Every structure is written in C-alpha cells, then in structure tokens.
Amino acid sequence: MDLSSAKVSVRSPNGGLLTDQPWSTMPVLLLEEAVPWRSFRWYRGQKHYSGTYWSSTTRDHVIYESRLELARLLYADFDRLVQHIVAQPFLLKEVVDGEIRRHVPDFLLVTGCGLLIVDVKPRSRREVPAVVATSGWTRELVEARGWRYELWS
What is the pTM of this model? Predict the structure, then answer.
C-alpha cells in the first residue's frame, strides 16, 4: 500500500489542531498525546450510551461512545501489556477511487508490543459492506506502518 496519499489530523492537548499531515511520517508521540477527535453528543432517546471511564492505566478519564466500547476499554485497562489508552486518537483521510474516505478509530493502545489501533463494532455489523471497506482500508494503513489493527466485537 502506498502511504503517501493518506493524511492524518490530530487534536493536541493544548487545543491545537494538526490537519492533513502525512500518515507515513506522523510522529507516534503526537498520536499518543492526542485528545479525542469528537466531542460527546448527548440527546434524549439516543441509541448509544456514551460516558467517561476512569482508567488506572492512563490515570485519567477515557471517553467511550457505547457500552461495547466501554467493554473493550475495560479489557484494555486490565491488560498488563497496555501502557496508555487514547480514545478517538486521530482522523485518517485519503482519496480512494475518486472519493474522500475518512475514519476515526475508537482507540489507540500503546502496548509493550507496539501500537494497536482498535475499532469496535457489534458482531451484527462486521459484515456490512461499509464496515468491511472501512476496516480493511484502516487495517492496510495501520499495518503498513508496522502497527497492529483490531476490529473488536
């Protein structure tokens, strides 16, 4: 896979925004220090249960947008290999077949074995064509950097 066309945008803790940086050369440290890409959306009757979880790993709150994400977050927090957790760490963007493809992964886990990018989807949605395409594209970009990718259900 050619990484040269993929771009990444990151929100920094000081409120700054780095946009459309080359994915292939984005420093890991900036990804590890990122703040969540999206803000919470709370409204009456929403389908997902969003919240914050106090992580002993990060010694800070980590956000999640569904109970399934919370479950994965709990696994990460109790995993001895996980050294740091970042929710919604960045926005990936690339033009594929003339269309702009965008995706914000659910978690970045810094582990003793390297970086792990995690997307969380219900098992019933794993075979939806849009999910298959997005997770496949994300996996290729992540693994091209030598990191690991996980689609977790």
Answer: 0.92
